[in-house]
Amino acid sequence: MIELDKICVDFGGLRAIDHASFKIDAGRITGLIGPNGAGKTTAFNVIAGAIRPSAGRVLLDGKDITALKPHQRAKAGLARTFQIPHEFGHLSVLENLMASASAPEGENVFNVIFRRGHYQAEERQIYETARDTVRLLELDHVIDEKAGNLSGGQKKLVELGRALMRNPKIILLDEIGAGINRTLLSKLADKILMLNRERGLTFCLIEHDLDYVSKLCDHVLVMAQGSLLTEGSVEEVRNDERVIEAYFGGGKYEAQL
Amino acid sequence: MIEFVNFYLFPALAIGSIYALGAVGISMIFGILRFAHFAHGDLMTLGTYGVLAMAAIVPVNPLLLIPFGMALTIVSALLVDRYFYKPLRELPTIYTVISSFGIALVFRSIVQLVWGSQNQVFSTGVKPPLVLFDTFRISVLHLQAVISTAIIAVLLHYFLTVTRTGRSMRAVADDPELAEVSGLDTAKVIRWTWIIGAALAAIAGTFAALNTSAHPNLGWNLLMPMFAAAILGGIGKPMGAMAGGFIIGLAEELSSYHWIGDDALISPSYKTAVAFVLMIGLLIFRPQGLFKGRLL
Amino acid sequence: MELTGLFFYAVSLLILGGIYAILCLALNVQWGMGGLFNAGIAGFYGVGAYTSAILTTSASSKHLGGFGLPVPLGLVGAAILAGLAGWAVARICVRLKSDYLAMASIGIAEILRLVIVNESWLTNGSLGLSRIPRPLADLTTGRMGDIVFLGFVWFVVLLVYLAASRLHDSPWGRSLRAIRDNEASAAAAGKNVEKFRIQTFVIGCAIMGIAGALSAHYFRFLSPTATDPLLVTFLVWVMLMAGGSGNNKGAILGALTIWTLWSVTEIFTNRLPPEWATRSSFIRMLLVGLLLQVVLQRFRSGLLPEKSPPVKFRQE
Amino acid sequence: MKKLTTFMAAAALLGSGTAALADDTKIGILMDITGPIANFIPPLQNAADLAVKQVNEQGGLLGGSAVAVYGDTTGTAQGAVDAAQKLVNVENVPIIMGSLMSGTTIAAAEAAIIPAGVPQISPTATSPAMTFLEDNGLVFRIVPSDNYQGEILAKMVMDEGIKKVALTYVNNDYGVGIGETFIDAYTEAGGEIVAEAKHEEKKDSYRSELASLAKGDAEALVVIAYAGDSGGKIVRQAIEGGLFTKFVGTDGLRDELLIQNVGADALKTSFFSSPTSPAENPAQKALHDAFNAAYGEGADKAFVDQTYDATFLALLAIEKAGSTDRAKIAEALKEVAMAPGEKVGPGEWAKAIALIKEGKDIDYEGASGSAEFDENGDVGGYIGKFVVDGDGYKQVEIVE
């Protein structure tokens, strides 16, 4: 589904991603792991279009999307969440979700001022979807709360909810579990699994908690120092010498396995 | 050619040094406190009137009285920061920007209340210019302004590269988050930013008033070219701001020189617009400035 | 102090208050909903004022003009030209971060002012345009004309308010507010940030142009003194911050409150002892500067804070 | 509770002003106190206050006292309209003196003063547009239109034998108005303008403008600008640069500030034009003596004479009308200002009210001229030629 082809990213003099190439397959839940500074979030940003690579191509379903802007990639079916929640602080939870939906009629200025009838059906549809999503994420009790006032965990759920509202082909989840308590976390895992099994949604997630990864992921990509180190099932990767080396060998990174 | 040097180049350098001194403060505040300080021009005006008030009491060369103006601006800047800007520091910078807009108005109305709105001059009579080699006529004041600015530039460079506080300031301007975690004394850095910015503002204002006359809109009228200079030099780069000030001063004055044929290149009526056009152009095409300042 | 006098003073307060309310609604679209820091309101206001004045006055040898169009067409022209100016500015500046956009827009307003002052073939320069007609001027004479004009201004306020509310309550407004709150996240949700911002800027500038046109028709005389940044740009910012940025009703309330305060304070400062009365204008400026600080620190969300529009499907 | 007390205090303050003695008569004074010409205003406020003070010392107005109520236009159209509305409606003044800038004067007149039927007399609004206002005979000014001063200035320069000049004028209604008329009149009379530059106010350096002005072989530099702003800077920078030694200025430049700024020596060969009164009229001296006696200094500042005269005329008109009826005052203004009638000069209020009581017609001869209004409320007037004399200016010739 997504393919990175010899991607390079430079920040000033620093090469954050160095000729990384990998694939995320459709229909699966893929984990992206690696020590801090391996370039995972940067890779997500490259896929989502927030960072323009200095070399290489990004393909979505075989089509080159390297030149597309973030919103164009979103329209092509790509959704993402952010490591640090990027909520719309002054909007309510419901609005956060509704604002994330695609609304071609309701976002047309002419319609908005002169032909309000034109977007009512679309708007009702968005509202229903948002309601369902709120129910799914069990956020009913804070539905009218401004998103800026939520707890860290709730914000993470809103992030996921917003991604779902896009009705995407693939969702990139950046440390969705960080800051969420255990019970919620396992509920969240069930939801992701359910979405994957029932709706056939593709996921790719960055996660530090390997147990969580092993519970969710069919396939794991391991990044280190800006490129793909190895890939395989969680078990395979866990016992790979190079992976252990990457995590421990640098010395300066904390152990996370 | 002589005309060019006498009427365009020297005055341009003098105006440039006024912009340069003002722009240093703007650039450092922008780099370290991360907001566009719209009251900086009026801080200049305040300093100028401080000097003017002393000059009415002590009849010596006004340049010797600049420390009084500096004291006034430094105290005002620190008080304003403490009571008006600091409470807004955790909010989006826009609040501080708007606040500084209001502070500009407060400074200006205080000047008008205390000293009145009439133009005031430091001295009467025309000072004959210095004539060099029978051809170059340089106003003594312009020479003083350019030389003072050069000395200040050297001292500032020394302060920023050798002293601990100066180095911390540069570190914060380059990367505030990093500076925060590495345990620099941010409060001290902020204090010194205001002290230096305010002191230089007083000097710049006094030179501007000596050049013409003091009036309540003195600094406000200089604000936009100074912003342009700060952006040109790169935000957070004091030396860049200095260079930017000179470039803007030269560009403004030289734009109306008759480079081609006999007519002014740009009608002097549009002289003010030169700085704006330069600034907007830079913002769009090279917002990091000529000296790789920080991007906000 | 006689009652008819007070009544007509109230009328004049409401006329200028109404014009400020339109400016404030425009800024609310740009800043309150869109998060765009436009510090060059006076420029677009000026473009609108001059456009409408030139379109509606009769011929003169001194400047462009002689179209003699009816006032409503002048207003439409003002909106279109100010909107076009806004579009040109937005195309190049809208990507700039807030402080930079502020500086760029101040610079542009200043350039526009220079054009107005210098291009006398177009605007009659500093001598100004005179004999600008008022709408429905034939109906009444003298002060009664103010009442008719008051109705006209508030009719326009109503139209602008309705449009601004529809914008605010719509999916368009929701997405715009989302962009304002978090640009990266909105882009990730498929919002074309640049397109929204340009639209916002253009709509805001067009409305500012309408406000400019209305004041030209109210003053019946237009010279560059009408585009002073203190009374146009700065005061409008104070109004929006005080009224509640993000809230259209707040914008109108803020405009009326601050304009009334600004105007009425002179009646009081005039009654200070004579040695202070001559400086009353400076005291007034000082008070406004300090009032803004109080608003920023204590009443940050304004008189009427931002509110999410109700979702109308909920009841069903 | 706190709010209530503040409100009560405010209400009391408001009341205290308006509940002043019932036989007080207000006169509205509209001035551009803040804003671009703020630096001109303090002596002009003194001039207006002086007129009111003299009235109260010499028998009062309509049997009571005259009270000056100020409005600040802030130098903007919005401020002008707002201030005028307050004067007309809240203060309920029967006549308005002011304002100074043409832009604010016309906006205030059009939007507030004319609709309310209040007569208005401006001391200094020189814009030609004032002539053609549809004002129902309510708007007057005692300063000639720019067109007039520009023509006279051209004549003055030609009479001096100067055939080639460089010209710079400030880009506002004042500078453009006089400047453009000057160009036409001067070239028509056979003079040559070798260089011309319109300049912006509030700049620090005018050296590049001066450099281009100095390029011809002009005998003098004509500066139409204010001494407190660009005019003073231009003269100073021209002298410093050794570009010009002879300057020709208008009433905006004829300000003691200019002498303070560049020194009398540097202006020895320069001369200035300014609206004035016929030579034998002792009015100006009488006013200046009274002014300097009251305020110590400043009588010779630009526009002091006009401001005083306009205020005094407004007060005379109220007295003549015998009531605060606005329409009557407008008529009375013409009667007291124009011949025929017994001559009255500045400060002669007691004489004036005695004459009015006797039913005699009066004709005010002011320090700035004799104010004979034409059907548009304009005056022709006299323009004087002034040279620097010590710390002040001396009138040497009068051109009609």
UniProtKB/TrEMBL annotation, chain A:
InterPro entries to which the protein is assigned, alphabetical: AAA+_ATPase, ABC_AA/LPS_Transport, ABC_transporter-like_ATP-bd, ABC_transporter-like_CS, BCA_ABC_TP_C, P-loop_NTPase
Gene3D superfamilies (alphabetical): P-loop containing nucleotide triphosphate hydrolases
Pfam families: ABC_tran, BCA_ABC_TP_C
Domain ABC transporter: 2-250
Cell division listed as a keyword: no
An example molecular function term from Gene Ontology annotations: ATP binding
Family label: Belongs to the ABC transporter superfamily.
Name of the protein described by the UniProt record: ABC branched-chain amino acid transporter family, ATPase subunit
UniProtKB/TrEMBL annotation, chain B:
Keyword annotations of the record: Amino-acid transport, Cell inner membrane, Cell membrane, Membrane, Transmembrane, Transmembrane helix, Transport
GO terms classed as biological process: D-alanine transmembrane transport; L-alanine transport; L-isoleucine import across plasma membrane
Stated name of the protein: Hydrophobic amino acid ABC transporter (HAAT) family, permease protein
Domain of life where this protein originates: Bacteria
CC annotations in GO: plasma membrane
GO MF, one annotated term: L-isoleucine transmembrane transporter activity
Membrane-traversing stretches: 7-33, 53-80, 92-115, 135-160, 192-212, 266-285
Family annotation (InterPro entries): ABC_transp_permease (IPR001851), BCAA_transport_permease (IPR052157)
Keyword Cell membrane set for record: yes
TrEMBL record, chain C:
CDD domains xref list: TM_PBP1_LivM_like
Residues annotated as transmembrane: 6-29, 36-55, 67-88, 100-117, 147-164, 201-219, 281-299
Protein name: Hydrophobic amino acid ABC transporter (HAAT) family, permease protein
Keyword match Membrane: yes
Major site of localization recorded for this protein: membrane
Single annotated GO MF: branched-chain amino acid transmembrane transporter activity
Classification via InterPro entries: ABC_transp_permease, LivM-like
Subcellular location: Cell membrane
Bilayer topology term: Multi-pass membrane protein
UniProt-listed PANTHER family: HIGH-AFFINITY BRANCHED-CHAIN AMINO ACID TRANSPORT PROTEIN BRAE, HIGH-AFFINITY BRANCHED-CHAIN AMINO ACID TRANSPORT SYSTEM PERMEASE
GO cellular component: plasma membrane
Oxidoreductase keyword on record: no
Keywords assigned by UniProt, alphabetized: Cell membrane, Membrane, Transmembrane, Transmembrane helix
Provenance organism: Roseibium aggregatum (strain ATCC 25650 / DSM 13394 / JCM 20685 / NBRC 16684 / NCIMB 2208 / IAM 12614 / B1) (Stappia aggregata)
TrEMBL record, chain D:
The UniProt record lists the keyword Cytoplasm: no
Residue ranges occupied by any Leucine-binding protein domain in the UniProt entry: 26-337
Keywords noted in UniProt: Amino-acid transport, Signal, Transport
Signal peptide start and end residues: 1-22
This protein's record includes keyword Amino-acid biosynthesis: no
Pfam family, one: Peripla_BP_6
Domain of life: Bacteria
Gene Ontology BP, a term: amino acid transport
Family: Belongs to the leucine-binding protein family.
Name the UniProt record assigns to this protein: Hydrophobic amino acid ABC transporter (HAAT) family, amino acid-binding protein
Annotated organism of origin: Roseibium aggregatum (strain ATCC 25650 / DSM 13394 / JCM 20685 / NBRC 16684 / NCIMB 2208 / IAM 12614 / B1) (Stappia aggregata)
